[in-house]
Amino acid sequence: MVKFIARSLGVRGLVRNLDDGSVEVFAEAPEDIMDRFVKMIDVKGRAEDVLSLHVERVEVSREGETGYSGPWRSYGAFEIDYGEEGPRPIERDIAESLEWSKLYFTKLVTEFSDLRREFRDYRNEFRDYRNEFREFKNESISLANETLEEVKELRRDLKTILDERLARLERDISEIKAKLGLL
Fold this sequence. Notes:
The chain is mainly α. It contains 3 helices and 3 strands, in the order H-E-E-H-E-H.
């Protein structure tokens, strides 16, 4: 990763893994490019995930400052130092291909983990919506039942009123017929 970032920014130098698990980088570039380089290699992955790229800290020593030491060997562009018994060109190509594969796989695993976490969030949100819908459904059923009861009451009231009017009309008609002598 360091080599890829360095080469993409035009940084020259060396990188090597140390026995204590840390990585040592000697880099040469204009100040603004160097600042970008340092920020880009300070990757914060998941420390608990062995496949995740995670840089705990980056220590920078500039030329002339305490702690600065020059390159440990000569270099061309930006190179990975594999040690004294450096690999043959084919072994270097294989190692770099494997490193690329590891970086790509790590990126995929990280993205998958992020998607899985996001899915969990959506799943919880969906559960909330589902519960909310159940409550809405129950309220709707309750409201529909209340409305149905009100319609039934109105129907009974209307039937009572119409029955009373019909009875009054029949009485009025009987009275009129009686007055006219038709009964």
